[in-house]
Amino acid sequence: MKIAIIGGGAIGLSLAWELAGRSHGVTLIDESAFGRKASWAGAGVLYPANFETATHPIEQLEAISNRVHKQWADQLMKLTGIDNGYRECGGLYVAASPGEVASLVGSVGYWHERNVAVDFIDAKAVARRYPDLCPKLVHGNAFRAAYTPQESQICSPRHLEALESACKSLGVQLRPNCDVQQVRETTNHVAVTIASSEHIFDAVVWACGAWTQQAIMRCMQRQGPDMVPVRGQMLLYFLDQRLDLPIINKGNRYIVPRDTGHVLVGATIEKVGFDETTTEEALEKLTRDAHELIPALTPGKIVKSWAGLRPGTWDAFPYMGKMPACERIFVSTGHFKTGLQLSAGASLAMADLIEEKTPEVDMTPFDPSRVLI
Ligand SMILES: Cc1cc2nc3c(=O)[nH]c(=O)nc-3n(C[C@H](O)[C@H](O)[C@H](O)COP(=O)(O)OP(=O)(O)OC[C@H]3O[C@@H](n4cnc5c(N)ncnc54)[C@H](O)[C@@H]3O)c2cc1C
Hints:
- By secondary structure, this protein is of the alpha/beta class.
- It is about 30% helix and about 25% strand.
- The chain has two domains: about 210 residues, FAD/NAD(P)-binding domain, CATH 3.50.50.60; about 150 residues, 2-Layer Sandwich (D-Amino Acid Oxidase, Chain A, domain 2), CATH 3.30.9.
């Protein structure tokens, strides 16, 4: 089949790679450079999940994604020579207030129910194993912690670079900085107008992240799926000495040590429309929180800050499947806070849908028609 994917973030790039691997002729189109929006901004944390005990398709998709990310890291390395930073680094969840403790106990209970490896660790053991964590925090009265060995990470910019390079190797037609003007489905094909010239495809997939709704409105003159952009601001530190820590999670904050000496600190969760700028107030708060957790993270070690727009949806589930009243036009978007993780499983499921095969996961909860008019 000849397939066009519009939007080259993690979702579009992963699907392009998967479809090209299944011998389809794929064209990947983006209005700017590939992989520079939410996917570049994301931390790349892959949360633990267990397919066997999952009670919802979204959890199954997370578990499939974890399995696939592990395989992809090797395949991408072999094909492109790029290490995408996949590491099974584990995750430490810490709580220091009654509210945080209640939330931690809830999360641990959820993982226990699903047979996901997790253990509470006492403060003494935390202090011994992780001396970089703030001693005042660890020895505080309300302190509790739990460790999940299966939490992993990918380095988002390197992962995207590897995917783009892999797509190129498999013959994907890459069209960055390309303005799609119209998408029109007819009986046997989809016509995509780019720079006033029409290109014919057997199927088209919209994967424009937070911008999917407006892109569909502009190019198809019809209602697309309701999108809720959710801004996340992030800080990047560089330390002379690599932090020997798992991913540290506390409330809405996470600290992700990379093995290059870089450390990511994130992230805010803000509904401010399509505003991708950072704010002094949020960055100061992130800076304070980071220092309180890990004293080595001082303001002088910050090398970069940025904001990205997570593609949120009204019910927090992604839209994946055919657009209503369409046979050949699909949507894959709305993966919100876990789009880097889900991109792997989503690409398998979407490729199956396009090939009219039955995906491993029941895709009904993700049907875009659940909200479209
Ligand atoms: C601060 C932050 C931290 C995050 N941390 C994590 C994490 O730890 N783990 C995790 O799994 N997820 C994380 N996420 C979420 C994850 O990054 C997103 O869910 C995911 O990247 C969405 O991918 P996407 O391809 O749908 O969107 P995007 O990456 O935004 O890509 C959309 C693409 O569409 C293109 N586009 C837009 N309009 C058009 C148009 N009209 N025509 C053509 N192209 C168009 C854009 O240029 C862009 O390249 C985080 C997100 C943020 C912001």
